[in-house]
Amino acid sequence: MSILVIAEHHNGQLAGSTAHVVAAAQAIGGDIDLLVAGEDVAGVAEAAAGLVGVSKVRVADAGVYAHQLAEPVSDLIAGLAGEYSHVLAAASTQGKNVMPRVAALKDVAAISEVLAVESPDTFLRPIYAGNAIATVQSSDALKVLTVRTTAFDAVEATGSATIEAVTAEVDNSLSRFIGEELASSDRPELGSARVVISGGRGMGNGDNFKLLEGIADKLGAAIGASRAAVDAGFVPNDMQVGQTGKIVAPELYIAVGISGAIQHLAGMKDAKVIVAINKDEEAPIFQVADYGLVGDLFEVLPELESKL
Amino acid sequence: MKVLVAVKRVIDYNVKIRVKPDHSDVDLTNVKMAMNPFCEIAVEEAVRLKEKGVASEVVAVTIGPKAAQEQLRTALALGADRAIHIETDDKVESLTAAKLLKRVVDDEQPGLTILGKQSIDTDNNQTGQMLAALAGMGQGTFASEVQVEGDEVRVTREIDGGLQTVSLKLPAVITTDLRLNEPRYAKLPDIMKAKKKPIDVQTPDALGVAVTSSLNVLKVESPAERQGGTKVASVDELVDKLKNEAKVIA
């Protein structure tokens, strides 16, 4: 078997997620190649060559791959895929954008958010926002997977793979890059933050979310919200954690004034440690919380901020 | 310009799911079903494009059993002009769904096809991208803003860490993310009117697409249960436990 891992990179830097995807490839077993597609990516290729377990880094360095738009990148990958039994990428927005397109070009199924590898053709993946885990077996000759990176420990960067250029010719008349607006806030992004603090309907209004900011600054946390808080108009929808929002798995999740509706739990129950602060001691959130504090959040939050 | 919008019937987002005792699947017997939330956003966007005069007609399409017509009626009540039901009781994987939708795209020739980015049952996040590949179109996935400009559509996409804007040649495929819009509720008179709007029923056979799958679900299990329930008495105790027991803060 031979496996192609699609490297993820931003602004000339190899993303940390790639080392986790290589680990998933090792769990499948076989020869592992890595593809770096982009423009001016020699530095990325060099970093990628250090990942343990990778035998060859293939570099497609051309203007058409700048910003890694789905249309040319999936054409490139589909062109190379015939040499491999598996093609893997991180289940990031980039991987999710490109890999299903690759699968359709190759007329095979795609398997999303792989959590574990049972055998080279059998994988575990979450369905219903992680409320059930499906074991799926693929009969396709080519398996196209995206990998949930938090489920695999990263490989070390002490290797030395060979680097070779790919000279495939791909053009793109379908899409053009216009611009990018990356969050400049010091706060981490919800999906990848180590700590997340979320507010629910109990926050009372949008202004009160400021109470979470001081704590978030001290912990380097991202700020989230329950659907109830979003539906009440306190905060915008992109802050929503839950089945209809973002799925997070931070080391520490602090739920403030959140009752713990099923749809919210689905989005955060994979956090390593859950703290719940709620004045209703019967709130279902306490059943999943490692540490529950019954109290008025308007007293608890300032005190917590001062003691961190 | 015609806009095609795909909707899916799924379990209501508020329902707690149960895995069947034989681990073959999730138990959907007598469970409340609804339109997938991301599909609601797709319908809303299509209807807004019509209200702005950008779209001339909104066609809703679904794939699924007879009961999925409920979701088409919802789409019609929200403002779609007519609907297409590809009726099948079989389980339809993303690739097959994309092939069926491709056939509809061939027939209808929409300028834009809008889908939810994923359904909350299978959580695949694949069909839109697959449809775009099969139709040879550009894709604007996880859209938070859509603007049609001449023969192009400008799509702002939610990506890890921020937003990316791309311009796609029409026709194109768009999948919706949460921020794109806030779906309206259907008003009673519109629900009544929707009952008279036409639904064209088709079958995968008639469309020449075999409902097959290369994926075999071996089993479905519940995830490991969390052991929670411990309470702390004060903020001091909480901070102490986080520092010294859980070791998640410094």
UniProtKB/TrEMBL annotation, chain B:
Entry keywords, A to Z: Electron transport, Transport
InterPro entries named in the record: ET-Flavoprotein_bsu_CS, ETF_a/b_N, ETF_b, ETF_beta_N, Rossmann-like_a/b/a_fold
Keyword Metal-binding tagged: no
Gene Ontology MF terms in the entry: electron transfer activity
Domain of life: Bacteria
Domain Electron transfer flavoprotein alpha/beta-subunit N-terminal span(s) in chain numbering: 23-211
GO biological process terms, semicolon-separated: carboxylic acid catabolic process
Listed cofactors: AMP
Function: The electron transfer flavoprotein serves as a specific electron acceptor for other dehydrogenases. It transfers the electrons to the main respiratory chain via ETF-ubiquinone oxidoreductase (ETF dehydrogenase).
Record's subunit section: Heterodimer of an alpha and a beta subunit.
The family this protein is said to belong to: Belongs to the ETF beta-subunit/FixA family.
Protein name per its UniProtKB record: Electron transfer flavoprotein subunit beta
